[in-house]
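Support request, priority: normal
Reporter: lab tech (M.K.)
Component: structure prediction queue

Hi team, I submitted a job for TRAP transporter, 4TM/12TM fusion protein from Eubacterium cellulosolvens yesterday, and the status page still shows it as pending. I've pasted the exact input below so you can check whether something in the sequence is tripping the parser. The sequence length should be 677 residues. Please let me know if I need to resubmit or if it's stuck on your end.
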Amino acid sequence: MAEKDRKAFERDLVTQEDRRNREEEEKLNTYDSFVQPDHTIQEDIDTVMRKYDRESNTRVWVGKPKVAISMILAAFSVWCIYVTLFATFLEEIRLTSFMGLIILMGFLIYPAKKGTQKVNYMPIGDIIFMILGAGAYFYFTFHATEIINQGTRFTWYQIIIGIVGVVALIEVTRRCVGIPILCVAGFFLIYALSYGLTNPDFFGRVRYLIRNLFYTKEGILSTPVNVCSKFIVVFIIFGAFLERTGISNFFINLANCVAGRFAGGPAKVAVISSALCGMVSGSSVGNTVTTGSVTIPMMKKTGYKSEFSGAVEAASSTGGQIMPPIMGAAAFLMADFVGVPYSDIIGRAILPAVLYFTGIFISVHLEAKKLGLHGIPKDELPKFGKLIRKIYLLLPLIMLVVWVSGNFMTMQKAASLAILLSIAVSLIDKENRITPHKILEALEAGGKSAITVGAACGVAGIISGTITMTGLANDLINGIVGLAGNHLIIALVLTMLCCIILGMGVPTTANYCIMAATTAPILIRMGVPVMAAHFFVFYFGIVADITPPVALAAYAGSAIAKSNPMKTAFNASKLAIAVFIVPYVFCYSPQMLLIDSHPFEVVQIAVTSLIGIFGISAALEGYCFTEINPVFRILAIVGGLLLIIPGLVTDATGLALVIGVLAIQKLLAVRKTAAAA
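Reply from support: The job had stalled in the queue. We restarted it manually and it finished. Here are the results:
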């Protein structure tokens, strides 16, 4: 009897274990398991971020030191908001105090090298370097009036202070941004000291260089840092608050309601949600990892290949930086460089952004049809009725656009009010209510994110200042213009290559600053409108994040998808084909950017360009109704390109080619279906 009881008990245990396994499997197969990542998934996310995002490699602070660091970062954010809204003191005081705090926080947060960090440990060398580096900028802060009034008469100890300030900025940039941008800065500094400056005495050249780079607004304190301290930081803080309202999950749920049930739904969800989340985060790698931890497993589960899944997320997340209304930090710099209101940048960016994401969306749809994939089951999707109740989360973004585009107030004031509005709307939602603790977290996150942008802008100022001082900009412009002759296409291709090469490991903000000072004037000299020239370098600086061989966003996506990194990068580049074409188009036809255009022209360009993007996407995918043979793929690409180029002749020819290919493909598909039946 005892033996029977024992066997019955064992059978009962096995039955219970099977039931638990089935429940766990069902849980993993539902949508909710992806939108609420567990502890293991979060650890994987952190690992990927540390590998591909230098900002995630930080010191480990716990206990009271952590509280102290958090308070410093939060106080910095509050200081930035106060200064941009209310401060009336000298601009030099604002800029030097900003950079001094960036140096201070940079050393506190980022260690000298990657790897496992000791808890609550900071080497004495870092402490000394931090004090000297931050002190150099604070020296300028407290002696700003004297320094401005003394003109060019600088003592040697002031030059040494300037050298310490420059070296400290370079070291912080190395820690939180990376080596590539320092290689560029190093090249120009060496050029200036060895050849570019005319002073025959080496120490005279050093003195002149440091005086201009550190003590004037032609170097570190030039436009990039000015715009960063005045506008960018406030919008970064706004993004940190917005994320804590739960808007990222809202965007993902909204994307699922819109596209989840259709063929290949998870990939379409990735395109929509990444576009929406990316415009807030402003980081290609960060957005790829954050939304990719949800969308990539969903895509793989649906049937997409690993390389394709990672590529969809990387391409979509990278495109978030060209998505209005936020568009990442570089858009604020563009408004300042071009000399137009930020609302102008937003309006002109809409059509290119639509073309970019439409191209990706079409590609994932055709891939789904080719593979015979289905969407997410209806019972696993979020209910629209429940989701619409949280539509109020969009209010801060909507009001920000209204305030900025309507010129009701300055950008920094609009962002500050949007921060308060995001706190207010969060009070409605019990799950994501912003508490005092979350306010501190958001201020801390905003301060930490500002370190990288501020350091990159400072080094970009060194590069642009050195180029200006040495006259290299004019030499470069004259050289490329002479090489290109009257052929604009040559200048465009050379500029594109410069942007992509420089963008391999250089943040978009710094990349744009450098290109705006060097290559954008080349295009302007060749007859390209100022706005179009700046958009051109902006777009190709962004696309470097998915362009091999250094495609950080694609590599981050491949790490989550567990796919081949290089194949993922090539797939991402193919999906983002629109971003390689559209910039050329608006340089030749600025009407795409709403420059000197009429409403009819805008509608015509929008419709024909969308059809053209469809033709190119279908050709690259090799499928539309049925597989497309190589000849028809070439014809579809040619037709698509002609449709994207504005003009009645090109539109008519391109439309004939694309529609002809689609009609033949439909006929072949019908015959294939009939033959199979």
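Confidence is low (pLDDT under 50) at residues 20-40. The chain is about 75% helix and 0% strand. Let us know if anything else looks off. Ticket resolved.
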